[in-house]
Amino acid sequence: MELHRPAAPAHAHTGHATCRICGSRLRHTFADLGMSPPCERFLPADQLDQMEPFYPLHVQVCERCFLVQLQEYVSPKDIFTEYAYFSSYSDSWLAHARAYTERMAGRFGLGPDSLAVEVASNDGYLLQYFAQQGIPVLGIEPAANVARVAVGKGLPTLVRFFGKELAAELVRQGTRADLITANNVFAHVPDVRSFTAGLKLLLKPRGVVTLEFPHLMRLMEGNQFDTIYHEHFSYFSFLTASRLLAQFGLTVFDVEELRSHGGSLRVYARHDDDESRPIEDSVGELAQREEAAGFTQLETYSAFDEQVRRTKRRILEFFLQARREGRTVAGYGAPGKGNTLLNYCGIRTDLLDYTVDRNPYKHGKFLPGTHIPVFPPGKLDETRPDYVFILPWNLKDEIRKQLSYIREWGGRFVVPIPDVEVFE
Fold first, then answer.
1. Could you tell me the strand order of the sheet in which 137-140 lies?
2. Residues of the chain with CATH 3.40.50.150
3. 316-423 — its CATH code?
4. Per-residue pLDDT reduced to its tens digit, 176-226
């Protein structure tokens, strides 16, 4: 395929960072969200007066392979060793996981003699459904506090980071997988080359890898700048992800477009020499759509930064107008994306009184950077805010259903992405 590589414009950044896939120097900005703290580093009250680390959220795009990427300002060990995100607190995500396991078991004939491995298995939210079907499982999860929950469910879990080295260890021990699931982890890996090499090693000759990750095309179309945070090192188009897999002998044979996380891809890959799984039409169709949309041309990426700035101004206009009218605003949720949005927009307790979350781990703590307090959901009924600002906007339908009672006092919902919208 012909890649169009125009000369660097005069305004391009001239830092010395290099692309984590192809090694090219990174010279072009995709989005610059200023300085922000690690998005899952919630603060107890006794730490509010201590110095808090802030790092750049400057995302660049490679002019050669078009990987959109953030430098490793914060190491994965700092982010994931003690982690605040537990997948099981979202009902819709559990339903997504259950449907996935049932479908994979049927499509690929998984049974008692198979092994399903999930990389970044979190609290066992997905593997539990394979186990219920009698399919042996293995979880790999670097966050010890989250992995303990999975082990408590009887799900074998290694507390390790996944890569080529761990895959080689498992193969030496006689472990290889019929199915490797990697949901929302591909973007979290700084060394994507080692990670992809590990997938290749761990996979049985007739095995299948499925990867789910936010689709860069949807991120840009939907103005989803808040999904940029230090946990996400890479932002993949289908074309770039397919090329990376191909470099390590893995062929993409199917792809599905999902609604989860604002628009994700589920990519299916197998060994190059496994011709038992023909390449579906979906692969060529999506590749053609991305090419037609300009994803092999640098200019396509360059307009996003100004689009993000316009959105920031509209979000601030909503909050300022609400305050001028004497309205109260509370948040719902304390997701990583919410912390990016609040820090980038400079929204603190002068504009957002507090937020609530179903996860008890976050109760009584404060959001990183903004120091907005986090309460249990019952706080909404106590204070009866005029607006509930939904930070995990990708779950807005689920949340509006859970909180339908706010209409009793005339409360309304607000969603910030793709644009500020108020709902009854």
1. 157-158, 137-140, 116-119, 177-183, 203-214, 264-271, 250-258
2. 87-301
3. 3.40.50.720
4. 999 999 998 999 898 999 999 999 999 999 999 999 999 999 999 999 999
